[in-house]
From TrEMBL:
<protein>
    <submittedName>
        <fullName>16S rRNA (Guanine(966)-N(2))-methyltransferase RsmD</fullName>
        <ecNumber>2.1.1.171</ecNumber>
    </submittedName>
</protein>
<dbReference type="Pfam" id="PF03602">
    <property type="entry name" value="Cons_hypoth95"/>
</dbReference>
<keyword id="KW-0808">Transferase</keyword>
<dbReference type="InterPro" id="IPR029063">
    <property type="entry name" value="SAM-dependent_MTases_sf"/>
</dbReference>
<keyword id="KW-0489">Methyltransferase</keyword>
<dbReference type="GO" id="GO:0052913">
    <property type="term" value="F:16S rRNA (guanine(966)-N(2))-methyltransferase activity"/>
</dbReference>
<dbReference type="InterPro" id="IPR002052">
    <property type="entry name" value="DNA_methylase_N6_adenine_CS"/>
</dbReference>
<dbReference type="InterPro" id="IPR004398">
    <property type="entry name" value="RNA_MeTrfase_RsmD"/>
</dbReference>
């Protein structure tokens, strides 16, 4: 796993073979971040990374200048790996939280400029995640939510849909919070 660009550009982290997480490929990550530059100014932004897995997206967000990144991951070993990566980078810009994403979102009182979610593709609650995030009001008005999912889901009819991108087997759907979804 490598950081694509920013202050930690080129840094590599070896993911233990025992990990169950499927990290976003470097190819897909680089392409989706290229798209995101039209929508998000990461410099000084507050970001939330749900289902963080290996922390690849969290580390990329920190490298790109986010002021704060909250990284939520339930798996103990994955959470520990994220902490180790942050220690190697000597950064306090990321707050790794070990916990259930659904409980976190339901109790969250903070708003973010950018939210990324990469749940397990087989998660039965996967289709409800965009509404959960957008209706809870944790995304600031005009904030961007990127949802990574498998090919079996289509969110193009969602009222907050912006666009869909596919890179190999990786699908990203982008949503924008409106005044109505942030109330």
């Amino acid at each position: 796993m490598r950081i694509i660009t920013g202050i930690y550009k080129g840094r590599h982290f070896d993911i233990p073979r025992s990990f169950k997480a499927r990290p976003t490929t470097d190819f897909a990550k680089e392409n989706i971040f290229n798209v995101l530059t039209q929508y998000v100014d990461f410099d000084g932004a507050e970001a939330l990374d749900l289902f963080s897995g290996t922390g690849s997206i969290s580390l990329e967000l920190v490298s790109r200048g986010c002021q704060t990144v909250v990284s939520v991951e339930m798996d103990r070993d994955h959470h520990r790996f994220i902490q180790e990566c942050l220690k190697k980078l000597n950064t306090k810009a990321c707050i790794p939280i070990r916990g259930d994403v659904f409980r976190f979102v339901k109790s969250c009182r903070q708003q973010y400029d950018f939210i990324f979610a990469d749940p397990p593709y087989a998660l039965k609650e996967l289709p409800q995640i965009p509404d959960l995030v957008l209706q809870k009001g944790i995304l600031k008005e005009d904030g961007i939510f990127v949802f990574e999912h498998g090919k079996d889901h289509d969110f193009s009819e969602h009222p907050n849909f912006i666009e869909h991108r596919q890179y190999g087997s990786v699908n990203f759907t982008l949503f924008r919070a409106t005044a109505k979804t942030t109330e």
